[in-house]
Automatic annotation (TrEMBL):
GO terms for cellular component: neuron projection membrane. One of its GO terms (biological process) is synapse organization. SMART domains: IG, IGv. It comes from Litomosoides sigmodontis (Filarial nematode worm). Residues 25-104, 118-222 form the Ig-like domain. This is Ig-like domain-containing protein.
Length: 222
């Protein structure tokens, strides 16, 4: 299975996207794919791109990592026994769908006793900036989200809109999306293929707990 790249598509995870667990307790990261029963599923750790499991086979020498499948829910559960602080971070569940693989992100936060924050805690403040560039006959829209506090466990999915309507990424001949992350910055890129004046419009990237950012695009093909 290919590692997460621009041919991969981020998706929503029906289970928890943020998992808080006490130090030295077991952590359970869920990846539920009820409509994709025949597809291969792999878990990777984002910070070092380490492949942890593929299907029911383990690819790590760390015996704390175990994979189990709940057939009734088609839920691939990555279990981390005796979680350490160093296990905190983003884990990716990648499903080999066509034409692009689908990736579910789960964020693990390992904390000391009594330090688990309630779900009602105030989210980190974020700013959003949308820039456009044209390379040949392609347009690149870069949506940069900056987090002003620890960016370990945040919901960093965005919704792309054109003239107020959600863009359909199933149209792979027209749109390609990818994402890059570090501790404080998240960059979502929308690539518009074979751009023409028919692609003119008001493009927006929308994210939870961050202001929307909009760019009016005019494609000059002359």
């Amino acid at each position: 299975m290919e590692r997460f790249n621009e041919n991969s598509e981020m998706a929503s995870n029906e289970k928890q996207r943020i998992v808080d667990v006490l130090l030295h307790e077991a952590a359970y990261l869920h990846c539920t794919i009820p409509h994709l029963k025949q597809n291969m599923v792999a878990w990777t750790r984002l910070r070092d791109e380490a492949l942890l499991t593929a299907g029911e086979q383990s690819f790590t020498t760390d015996s704390r990592f175990q994979i189990s499948l709940k057939p009734s829910e088609v839920d691939w559960v990555l279990t981390i026994r005796r979680a350490e602080r160093s296990d905190s971070g983003c884990y990716l569940c990648e499903v080999n769908t066509e034409p692009r693989s689908t990736v579910y992100a789960v964020y693990l936060n390992v904390v000391e006793t009594g330090n688990i924050k309630p779900l009602t805690s105030v989210p980190a403040k974020r700013t959003t900036n949308l820039m456009a560039n044209m390379i040949g006959n392609e347009v690149l829209l870069n949506c940069t989200i900056t987090v002003d506090s620890d960016g370990n466990a945040v919901n960093d999915e965005v919704e792309w809109l054109r003239d107020g309507k959600v863009i359909d990424f199933r149209n792979t001949k027209k749109y390609v999306s990818k994402v890059k992350r570090n501790s404080r910055t998240i960059i979502h890129t929308l690539r518009i293929l074979s751009a023409s004046n028919e692609d003119d419009g008001s493009y927006s990237c929308k994210m939870v707990d961050a202001p929307d950012s909009t760019h009016t695009l005019h494609v000059n093909t002359s």
